[in-house]
């Protein structure tokens, strides 16, 4: 892989490995170009209060429409970017873009809304991460109270001490933190107490087939109750049907996200959806 070996070490690979290695190198080059030419975009997916139907936040999700290859999903290029270190640049771009967008919406007169940004484990583990976030907020004029960072539980478990330091620094700056994909990783409830987090996002794998599998409903219920005893708000991901929303309502889930309300959409579509064309 790109950073582990010197470039010449590919001479020792088998032809098949050589092709894989070349594919990664090609993709690395494409990601670099995309950063340089500003080819990435951010789409936004609303988060809704389960009980009132009010939109309480947005999750920013990166999009890449490649001129020749067409749409390349983040599940394809984010892991590669993590592998070759470019995730740091992508991550900075994403945070800056989301902050800029937030400020643009305020300038247009829209009611301020919290924006959640995904942070990769690699970014979180950099010693200067919290500082980077502070600099970006300063540069963009972003109010930290409206920035939320989503991190996966595994990313914190890998390097707990340093990560908690970073999380505390972010929290002190006024940034909110959420645990993403909850239930898919180590799933230790112990850290809910230790970590300075505000939100818990229940992974869509539990939510999607909750109607078919009653055990999932029990799991979700337990997660919500436990999160609440720790003072956390719960976001259910991947809500696609009314029946699922009804169930979440019964279980006292706080917020949801999913195709049922809206897919992730570009900023202009979001403006139409949330604000009409009129500033509030
Ligand atoms: P995630 O953070 O768990 O994001 C949720 C994913 O579920 C998104 O896929 C979203 O489009 C999709 N989704 C939302 N509602 C529904 C639904 O009702 N049904 C279904 N089937 N899917 C739904 P997306 O945008 O393809 O992103 C995939 C993953 O890529 C994300 O998972 C996240 O881990 C990563 N990712 C996306 N954007 C970024 C980014 O800016 N930075 C980093 N580091 N990772 C990102
Ligand atoms: Ca997420
Ligand atoms: Ca998630
Ligand atoms: Ca995920």
Descriptive key words:
280 residues, alpha/beta, 9 strands, 19% strand, globular, binds ligand C2E, binds calcium ion
- What is the CA–CA distance across the termini? 50 Å
The biggest sheet, with number of strands, parallel, antiparallel or mixed sense and barrel status, is: 8 strands, mixed, barrel
Radius of gyration: 20 Å
What percentage of the residues does DSSP assign to strands (E)?
A: 15-25%
List low-pLDDT spans: none
The number of distinct β-strands equals: 9
Mean pLDDT: 91
Strand order of the largest sheet: 1-2-4-5-6-7-8-9
Helix proportion: 40-55%
The secondary structure category is: alpha/beta
Helical run tally: 12
Unique bound compounds: ligand C2E, calcium ion
**Apparent shape:** globular
Give me the strand/helix succession: HEEEHHEHHEHHEHEHHEHEH
Summarize the structure.
The protein is of the alpha/beta class.
Polypeptide structure, described:
The chain is α/β, with parallel strands linked by helices. It has helices at residues 15-36, 74-84, 87-107, 121-124, 129-140, 153-157, 160-173, 190-194, 204-208, 214-229, 242-250, 267-275, and strands at residues 40-49, 55-66, 70-71, 114-118, 147-152, 176-182, 199-202, 233-236, 255-256. Strands 1-2-4-5-6-7-8-9 form an eight-stranded mixed β-barrel, surrounded by four helices. The model has no long low-confidence stretch (mean pLDDT 91). The structure holds ligand C2E and calcium ion (CA) (3 copies). The site of one calcium ion has 4 residues, from loops.
